[in-house]
Amino acid sequence: EAGVAQSPRYKIIEKRQSVAFWCNPISGHATLYWYQQILGQGPKLLIQFQNNGVVDDSQLPKDRFSAERLKGVDSTLKIQPAKLEDSAVYLCASSLIGDAYEQYFGPGTRLTVT
Amino acid sequence: SQQGEEDPQALSIQEGENATMNCSYKTSINNLQWYRQNSGRGLVHLILIRSNEREKHSGRLRVTLDTSKKSSSLLITASRAADTASYFCATGTGAFGTGTSLTVIP
User: Chain A partners of B56 at a C-beta cutoff of 8 Å?
Assistant: First the structure.
């Protein structure tokens, strides 16, 4: 079974630039999550999708972050404009449906904002 | 969203010893999950325990859950150097704690 795929793996941008991350979840997984993990901290949920609908985006900084999940499969997370404090690893995870099942994580995208 | 808090923040043991880490949380839960993160394999799910369960085993892992105290513990028996990693509890959708950093010395 293929795992969660993410790209790119690394990205370096200057502040005020834009960046986009892509995630392809495990086939058949209805729920998709985006997390931000700052060095030394636990993952922080940014947004949760169930199929192509948003379940929870309460911690997403909506003035600069956006995410979509078209057709209930792949998802993209965008930051525009980036700030220095956005430097982190962005993790995508998927699960069968909801929080009753374990999450499977992708390798993450390490973003450095200079 | 609610967040689990792991204790201790860091733990260093000799290979072969047991490692215990704890998680406390604040509100009622449906289940609690433990994850491991190391640089080689990223974040990996270890075990899920439901609110009506008190103990669960998986290989060298044992998880307990005490909903009256709002706490859980993860026990790793006969630790190996490969167990060196950060361990997180997650108490709800997306609600991860800050983790326990475990170092197993060969």
Answer: none
- Encode chain A in three state secondary structure: CCCCEEECCEEEECCCCCEEEEEECCCCCCEEEEEEECCCCCCEEEEEEECCEEEECCCCCCCCEEEECHHHCCEEEEECCCCHHHCEEEEEEEECCHHHCCCEECCCEEEEEC
Give A38-90 pLDDT, tens digit per residue. Answer: 998 999 999 999 988 999 999 999 999 999 998 889 999 999 999 999 999 99
B1, B31, B45 member nearest A45 (Cβ): B1
Chain A nearest-CA distance from B88, in A, is 7
Instruction: Indicate which of A103, A104, A110 best probes the interface with B, i.e. most B CBs within 10 Å of its own CB.
Output: A103
| Local confidence pLDDT in tens for the 106 residues of chain B | 456 788 899 999 999 999 999 999 988 888 999 999 997 678 999 999 999 999 999 999 999 999 999 999 999 999 999 999 999 999 876 789 889 999 999 9
Smallest Cβ distance to B30: which of A42, A45, A99? A99
Contact: B93, A48; criterion CB under 8 Å: yes
